[in-house]
Amino acid sequence: MNCFSGTLFLTSALFISACSAPASETPDSNGKNEYQVHYDVTADPGEGIVRVELQLKQPRALLRELSFSTRDALQDIVADGELQIDDARVTWQPPRGGGSLRWAMSVNSKRGEGGYDAYMNSDWAIFRAEDIIPRSRTRTLKGASSDTTMSIHTPAGWSAISQYSTLQSRIEIETPGRRFEQPSGWIAIGKLGVRRETIAGIRVAVVGPESQSIRRMDMLALLNWTLPELAQLLPDAMPRLTIISAADPMWRGGLSAPASLFIHSDRPLISENGTSTLLHEVMHVALGLRSVEGNDWITEGLAEYYSLQLLRRGNAITKRRYTTAIKKQQEWAADATVLCQSVSSGADTALAVVTMAALDQEIREQSAGKHNLDDVVAELHKHPARLDLEALKTIVETMTMQASDVLHSKNLPGCHTLARNTDL
C-alpha cells in the first residue's frame, strides 16, 4: 500500500497500522537533520478568511508527523500524504520528501461582549499569527529541526506589518529553544499608516489603519521617555517592538504577544490614575513571562508595577505623581478578596502592584541595599519557565538569604489554598 498517495481520510486503526513511523528514530549521521517549512499566508477579505499553505521540503523522512487541535474556525483542510481529522485533533503524516498541508481560517473573533480580538473588513485586518496557524506538535527524527519561513500575500494596495522584518518577501522565523519554529505575534494587513523609530536600540513600529485616528507620534514620544529605562532594566530583551492600534470594533484594551502588542486607539497613553495600558503591555512583551494556573497575579503585578516605574524613571511623571499612583493602587487593593486565581484584574491586580512595591522594599532592607526587585526581574527573564509563587520565593530568598514575609501565604489572599493544592 502507498501511504502517501493523496489526501485520505482513514480510520484511526488503519492510519496507525499502515503509516506509522519505524520504531527506531535515531538520526542518520551522514545527513543534515534540518527540514524546510514555509508558510504561505494569503488574505481573502471578500470571504473574511486567511488561507494558509504549509509547504514542507526534507531530504528524507525527518518530520514524521504534525498535529494540532481541531478548531471551529478551521476550514477546507487538505494535504499530501496521510491526513486524519477527528473531534479533537488534525494529524498529518507527510510524504518522505515533503508535501503541503492547506487550510483556511475565519479571522473575525469576538472577545466576550467587548469587541473583536481578531477582525477583517474590506480595508484592513488585525490578528495574531497564532489565530491562523494553530500551535502544533511534531514527531521527528531525533535531533531534527525546522528552518521556517513565511510569506504574506495581500490584495493590491495593501501592505503587511508583523513583528518580523519585511525587508525580504520570505520572512525568516527564529524561535530560540524550539526545534519546530512557527510564526507568532500580531499581524496587521491592509491600507496602513506606519511610523518607525529606533529607541534605545529597539526597532519600533507603530501601525494602524490609515483611515483611523491613531496616535502614532504620541506613542513614540512616550516610548522615547521610557524605553531607555526598560533597556537598562532588561538589556537586549526586545530587539523589535511592533505596536498595532485600531478603533472599534476592536476590543477596547491592550493585548500582548511575542515582540508585539495591540492597543485600542481610544486608550489613554497615561490614565488619570497615573497608569499606562501601553506600557503595561510593553512590559508583558519585554518580560515574556507566563504564569502557572493561579499565579496570574505575579505577571500582571510585575507588568503594572513596572509600567509605573518606567513612567517615573523616564520622567514622564513626577516622583510625587508616582507616589500618588501607588496610593491609589493601595486604595483599590482594599476591595481585593482573592489574589491567587486564574485571571487577575481590577482590585486584584492593584493588590499585586502593592505587593510588588512592598517586596521591592523588603528586598532592599534584607539585602542591606545590595539588591532590589530589578534584580529579581532580571533573573526571572533569564529563565522564562512558567512562573509560580515558589519560583518567585526562591529567587527572592537567594538574594536576601531569608524567607520573604511579603510572599508568605498569610499576606496573599487565597494563596494558602493554592499552596496546599500545589505544595508551594
Describe what this molecule looks like in 3D:
By secondary structure, the protein is α+β, with helices and mostly antiparallel strands. 29% of the residues lie in helices and 29% in strands. The chain has helices at residues 12-19, 129-132, 216-233, 277-287, 296-313, 319-333, 347-366, 373-382, 389-400, 415-422; strands at residues 8-9, 34-44, 49-57, 63-69, 74-79, 82-85, 89-93, 98-106, 109-110, 116-120, 124-128, 136-140, 145-153, 159-161, 171-173, 186-190, 192-199, 202-209, 240-246, 254-257, 260-264. The protein has a 6-stranded mixed beta sheet, with no helix packed on it. Strand 10 (116-120) and strand 11 (124-128) form a beta hairpin. Helix 3 packs across helix 4 (277-287) and helix 8 (373-382) crosses helix 9. It is globular. The model is unreliable at 1-25 and 418-424 (pLDDT under 50).
Tertiary shape:
globular
Give the CA-CA distance, first to last residue: 54 Å
Q: Percent range for helical residues?
A: 25-40%
Task: Classify the beta-strand content into a percent band.
Answer: 25-35%
Radius of gyration: 24 Å
Average pLDDT, rounded to a whole number, is 89
- Which class best fits the helix and strand makeup? alpha+beta
Q: How many distinct beta strands? A: 21
This entry's quaternary arrangement is: single chain
Strand order of the largest sheet: 5-8-3-2-13-15
Biggest β-sheet description:
6 strands, mixed
